[in-house]
TrEMBL record:
Keyword Glycosyltransferase annotated: yes
Organism: Planktothricoides raciborskii FACHB-1370
SUPFAM superfamilies: Nicotinate/Quinolinate PRTase C-terminal domain-like (SSF51690), Nicotinate/Quinolinate PRTase N-terminal domain-like (SSF54675)
UniProt-recorded name of the protein: nicotinate-nucleotide diphosphorylase (carboxylating)
Stored InterPro entries: Aldolase_TIM, NadC, NadC/ModD, Nicotinate_pribotase-like_C, Quinolinate_PRibosylTase_N_sf, Quinolinate_PRibosylTrfase_C, Quinolinate_PRibosylTrfase_N
Pfam families: QRPTase_C, QRPTase_N
Any one GO molecular-function label of the UniProt entry: nicotinate-nucleotide diphosphorylase (carboxylating) activity
UniProt record similarity statement: Belongs to the NadC/ModD family.
Pathway, per record: Cofactor biosynthesis; NAD(+) biosynthesis; nicotinate D-ribonucleotide from quinolinate: step 1/1
Catalysed reactions, semicolon-separated: nicotinate beta-D-ribonucleotide + CO2 + diphosphate = quinolinate + 5-phospho-alpha-D-ribose 1-diphosphate + 2 H(+)
Amino acid sequence: MAVLAPWIVLDPVLQDWLREDIGRGDRTSGVFQKGKALSQEAQWLAKAPGVIGGLPIASRIFYLLDPNIQWEALIEEGECCQPGQVIARLSGSSDNLLLGERVALNVTMRLSGIATLTRQYVNKIADLPVQLVDTRKTTPGLRLLEKYATQVGGARNHRLGLDDAVMIKDNHIAAAGGIGEAIANIRDQIPYPLTIEVETETLDQVEEALKHGADIIMLDNMSPDMMRQAVKKIRDRNPRIKIEASGNITLENIRTVAETGVDYISTSAPITRSSWLDLSMKFKG
């Protein structure tokens, strides 16, 4: 189940987005309203097939503008929609519906696009004992929501930030002088229960990570054959160590990677390569 950050965390972000779009006021709708608070009913329509994500956030955006706006989602988060399908109904002050329309649609289209592509990746490996995870390649300011969207699509979150876990990558290894030195320098300084993950590119590096007690070993940009050898080496030595594959994961090769026996496959693709899912809001005549 996808877990959304609490509103005390998200509300300031949503309010900033509204302030950015509204500026000094709506110079179009106000002309027609002429100071009258007109009530209006509206529908949200899907214009393309995909997985819906972000409706609770859209509802919250309208609530922040006007608590009296009524919102009814007609589809569950993570469900698939079809073109022409009504996915939500709302009613309330027409000026406030128009004030929130673009921000609410934008975030829902963005998150639904991520959820849609994530689901395609997940479906490729759904029958195998491996899980898809996301990465920190996110849009600045949108990480919590983009990672929420990958959950909606069926993936799990990798670390949210640098403080979530230790991940020793190629530049850390170079700076420390080796995997062993990097692990030794870090292990006594991190709080319990943070784990240590090591990025490896060769079988020799896998051996060094095993020797120095890494909790998770990432196989980065390895060929499927090398990956299978690495998985066997790790499983024979310590079956409790988790194994992650990463690097240039695509819809075409993800199943081959999954069949090597890794526990996790990490990729930024659902976030960095997804297109927005086209949605629109229409007033009822």
